[in-house]
Amino acid sequence: MISLVIFLGEFGPTEIILVLAVILLFFGGKKIPELMKGLGNGVKEFKNASKGDQPSDKTEENV
């Protein structure tokens, strides 16, 4: 199996800028903050789940 790093090579600043430009053109400037907020919430939930923390929902505790 060919390693993904070998297949794609290393990312330099030019490639990163190109990818960010394509994302900006694809989603538009107004949608990107919403996408980043959703990504941040997803990462936070994943970390909490991996630690075994449960969300502090008051409705679940009272039921």
TrEMBL record:
<dbReference type="InterPro" id="IPR006312">
    <property type="entry name" value="TatA/E"/>
</dbReference>
<keyword id="KW-1003">Cell membrane</keyword>
<keyword id="KW-1133">Transmembrane helix</keyword>
<comment type="subunit">
    <text>Forms a complex with TatC.</text>
</comment>
<dbReference type="InterPro" id="IPR003369">
    <property type="entry name" value="TatA/B/E"/>
</dbReference>
<keyword id="KW-0813">Transport</keyword>
<dbReference type="GO" id="GO:0033281">
    <property type="term" value="C:TAT protein transport complex"/>
</dbReference>
<dbReference type="GO" id="GO:0043953">
    <property type="term" value="P:protein transport by the Tat complex"/>
</dbReference>
<comment type="similarity">
    <text>Belongs to the TatA/E family.</text>
</comment>
<dbReference type="Pfam" id="PF02416">
    <property type="entry name" value="TatA_B_E"/>
</dbReference>
<protein>
    <recommendedName>
        <fullName>Sec-independent protein translocase protein TatA</fullName>
    </recommendedName>
</protein>
<keyword id="KW-0472">Membrane</keyword>
<dbReference type="GO" id="GO:0008320">
    <property type="term" value="F:protein transmembrane transporter activity"/>
</dbReference>
<keyword id="KW-0812">Transmembrane</keyword>
<feature type="transmembrane region" description="Helical">
    <location>
        <begin position="6"/>
        <end position="27"/>
    </location>
</feature>
<keyword id="KW-0811">Translocation</keyword>
<comment type="function">
    <text>Part of the twin-arginine translocation (Tat) system that transports large folded proteins containing a characteristic twin-arginine motif in their signal peptide across membranes. TatA could form the protein-conducting channel of the Tat system.</text>
</comment>
<keyword id="KW-0653">Protein transport</keyword>
